[in-house]
Q: What sequence folds into this?
């Protein structure tokens, strides 16, 4: 009898709680507001201060930028009305709009722009402004940037730095930002939600979405939130996306969020990194072996078996971007792969299915961060395919800390991809070789490529720099491409997947960079609800 | 009494010092690199910037010097600035602790009350039907991992039945100023339930065992012979004698509670200390991790201190200093 009573009390308590709160707390599917949106993403920003890294790589939403990216990754004016570069490539002169105010009503002037860039440079945050020497504002609408050397990627950097108000900037700006962008900051509950409202005084088109709530949850929680219809759009993973959810549509967005294998290009035992980690691998240092792997892979099939088809073949770190060299693409050609190996003297003498040459067995380890299901699936599927040509890849999951020690001597399943070509410089320039920043652990260096990369960085026009970025990939004889030096075997560009409620139009998405959260909302001002 | 308490406080201070040394050593031995963490996901960064970042975070100073710097700052009440939140660690702990405290207290009371009530029921009906059912339930709950239980509860009540929100401490999209206490409790319910279910079995089983011991004693036999009913037996003799071990267990469970809250808060995206510490650990946020470690040690130590003081009140023999 006593048990039953306690159970009854518990039940009564629960019912009471529910009835007390249900009326106001639940946003059921019936009362979805047509100018509000709830977005579930996995990564929370650390700060909303553009000088501390907010909006870097995408758009800052709350603040506005001098120029902005277009859909096809070129630039158009935002705050700027005009800009020019001096003939020596050192001085950028920007004219800015005269009619822009911050959301607290104070006018945005060139002094704010100067303040923003100086703060950003001093903040030691991850924004790349190393080549910026000084910023000046001769009058209220003119800004002059002086560089230490020509920097073709500077426009890309400018497009991601939102302008902060000098008069309202303080230590807590990152948690209470004021800007002049399409959205106004309303409230931020850490690890829970960030609420933004449309800026009704925005100088551009006022967004149709009047209130956007970003909620931060991992993919599993987001999936549960979609199933219980508590969010309008949620980031999901290729492994979950095979399920249909009623009332929701699966959106997939093409990306440069690439996955590939770094293959140590130096022989083992000759050198060590500055921290004393071993460098080089006697199997992957053979170029014909690296190229054979590249040619033997069927990337379409890889995307299908490993990622439910939610991926596209990858041939470089910048597929589909304006500075990509189309010549880097290769056809799957197993005959060619076998030929490369045979010509170089790789043979299977002991009949175990794995090739040998001069006592070296064609077998190496590829490590990936354990817990990353996408990298695991891709690595396993790739190693399966490569077994066909007699090369054995042992796939092993481990921690990032362990990867940081072993990446110079083992293959690693890595991923990059950004809207700034500076990534290519970091990946392949010899000055960046064997550092602990994960860009060039394979120890790749090529003087010709270095020259192209330097030329690209110092080019006077964007178009000219693109030509050099392309030459660095493949100039007809050498380059970073798989048909060239092949320090990377590129595998797939993963698609970013979102469950969106029927009727939500998320506009035309730009090519997404690495990381699926922020790129989704960079065009939030274009989102609408269809009736 | 005052002497005992001041002795205990001295012990707590020494304990905290020891915890700080161990925690700092572990962090130093681990290969976490705050600079690395800062750069990951931030896009392309030039070497010059890296050097600047390393200097800023003091990566190249010797460990002992870093520890002393940190300890000095600590004594001044400055726990440093969190890497992931870019705010003083002290502020984050203060803010998060309120959430966690509410959660843990709800779970704690729930566990204590239901655990001892069910324990008493089991003890009274030893080997009969109610005992067998509740005992099995307790065993299942004891062996179920928190995260698994949390996921099941989440699936059942939030996804299928849609009775409760899937997480957070306030409704999605609602301004802080509009959130009522009922809504906070409503969001608190599932994580608190998960947390209490995990430690609840322990309390119930211990109470049961103690009650059975008491009921088998000779003075109970005598009382029974005098014709006392089961009810008065429980109230007069049973409860008083089971209270002490139950209280020990209850206050000692502060540590478990804290550990469990890390998982419960993570599953229900509840913004407390538990989810902050897992975020800090996963993102190599050293200042925040150390700050919360110290704070949780303090929290658990205070729990034990309260238990000791209460002993003295409940059992005057111990209060005279014999037991401590």
A:
């Amino acid at each position: 009898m006593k048990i039953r009573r306690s159970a009854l009390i518990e039940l009564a308590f629960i019912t009471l709680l529910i009835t007390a709160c249900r009326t106001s707390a639940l946003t059921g599917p019936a009362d979805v507001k047509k100018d509000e949106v709830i977005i579930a993403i996995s990564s929370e920003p650390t700060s909303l201060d553009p000088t501390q890294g907010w909006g870097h790589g995408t758009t800052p939403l709350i603040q506005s930028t001098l120029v902005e990216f277009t859909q096809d990754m070129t630039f158009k004016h935002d705050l700027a009305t005009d800009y020019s570069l001096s003939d020596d490539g050192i001085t950028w002169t920007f004219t800015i709009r005269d009619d822009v105010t911050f959301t607290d009503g104070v006018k945005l002037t060139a002094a704010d722009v100067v303040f923003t860039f100086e703060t950003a440079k001093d903040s030691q945050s991850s924004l790349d402004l190393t080549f910026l020497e000084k910023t000046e504002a001769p009058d209220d609408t003119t800004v002059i940037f002086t560089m230490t050397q020509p920097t073709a990627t500077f426009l890309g950097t400018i497009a991601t730095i939102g302008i902060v108000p000098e008069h309202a900037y303080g230590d807590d700006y990152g948690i209470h930002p004021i800007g002049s962008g399409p959205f106004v900051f309303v409230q931020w509950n850490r690890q829970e939600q960030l609420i933004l409202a449309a800026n009704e005084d925005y100088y551009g088109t006022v967004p149709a979405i009047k209130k956007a709530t970003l909620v931060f949850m991992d993919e599993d929680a987001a999936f549960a939130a979609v199933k219980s219809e508590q969010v309008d759009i949620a980031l999901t993973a290729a492994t979950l996306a095979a399920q249909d959810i009623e009332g929701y549509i699966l959106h997939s967005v093409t990306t440069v969020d690439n996955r590939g294998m770094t293959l140590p290009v130096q022989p083992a035992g000759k050198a060590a990194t500055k921290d004393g980690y071993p460098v080089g691998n006697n199997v992957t240092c053979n170029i014909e072996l690296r190229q054979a792997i590249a040619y033997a892979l069927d990337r379409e099939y890889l995307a299908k078996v490993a990622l439910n088809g939610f991926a596209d073949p990858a041939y470089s770190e910048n597929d589909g971007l304006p500075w990509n060299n189309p010549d880097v693409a290769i056809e799957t050609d197993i005959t060619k792969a076998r030929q490369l190996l045979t010509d170089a003297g790789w043979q299977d003498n002991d009949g175990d299915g794995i090739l040998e040459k001069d006592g070296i067995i064609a077998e190496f380890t590829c490590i990936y961060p354990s817990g990353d299901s996408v990298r695991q699936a891709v690595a396993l599927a790739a190693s399966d395919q490569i077994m066909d040509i007699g090369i054995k890849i042992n796939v092993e999951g481990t921690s990032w800390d362990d990867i940081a020690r072993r990446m110079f001597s083992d293959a690693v399943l890595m991923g990059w991809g950004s809207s700034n070509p500076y990534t290519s410089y970091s990946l392949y320039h010899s000055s960046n070789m064997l550092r602990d920043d994960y860009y060039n652990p394979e120890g790749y260096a090529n003087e010709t490529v270095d020259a192209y990369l330097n030329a690209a960085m110092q080019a006077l026009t964007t178009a000219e720099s693109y030509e050099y970025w392309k030459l660095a990939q493949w100039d007809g004889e050498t380059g970073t491409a798989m048909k060239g030096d092949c320090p990377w075997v590129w595998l797939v560009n993963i698609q970013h997947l979102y469950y969106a409620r029927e009727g939500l139009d998320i506009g035309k998405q730009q090519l997404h960079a690495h990381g699926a959260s922020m790129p989704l909302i960079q065009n939030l001002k274009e989102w609408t609800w269809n009736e | 009494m005052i002497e005992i308490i001041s002795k205990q406080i001295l012990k707590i201070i020494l304990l905290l010092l020891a915890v700080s040394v161990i925690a700092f050593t572990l962090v130093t031995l681990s290969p976490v690199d705050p600079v690395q963490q800062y750069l990951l996901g931030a896009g392309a960064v030039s070497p010059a910037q890296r050097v600047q970042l390393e200097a800023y975070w003091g990566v190249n100073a010797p460990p002992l010097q870093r520890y002393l710097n940190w300890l000095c700052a600590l004594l001044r009440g400055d726990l440093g600035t969190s890497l992931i939140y870019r705010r003083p660690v002290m502020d984050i702990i203060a803010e998060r602790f309120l959430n966690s405290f509410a959660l843990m207290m709800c779970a704690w009371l729930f566990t204590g009350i239901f655990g001892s009530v069910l324990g008493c029921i089991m003890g009274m009906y030893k080997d009969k039907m109610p005992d067998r059912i509740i005992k099995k339930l307790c065993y299942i709950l004891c062996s179920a991992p928190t995260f698994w239980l949390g996921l099941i509860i989440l699936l059942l009540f939030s996804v299928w039945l849609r009775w409760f929100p899937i997480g957070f401490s306030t409704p999605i999209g609602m301004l802080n100023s509009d959130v009522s206490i009922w809504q906070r409790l409503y969001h608190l319910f599932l994580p608190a339930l998960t947390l209490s279910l995990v430690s609840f079995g322990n309390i119930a089983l211990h109470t049961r065992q103690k009650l059975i011991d008491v009921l088998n004693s000779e003075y109970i036999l005598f009382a029974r012979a005098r014709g006392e009913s089961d009810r008065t037996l429980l109230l007069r003799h049973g409860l008083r004698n089971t209270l002490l071990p139950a209280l020990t267990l209850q206050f000692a469970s502060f540590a478990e509670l804290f550990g469990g809250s890390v998982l419960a808060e993570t599953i229900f995206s509840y913004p407390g200390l538990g989810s902050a510490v897992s975020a800090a650990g996963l993102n190599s946020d050293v200042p925040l991790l150390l700050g919360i470690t110290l704070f949780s040690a303090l929290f658990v130590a205070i729990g034990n201190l309260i238990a000791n003081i209460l002993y003295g009140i409940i059992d005057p023999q111990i209060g005279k200093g014999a037991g401590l």
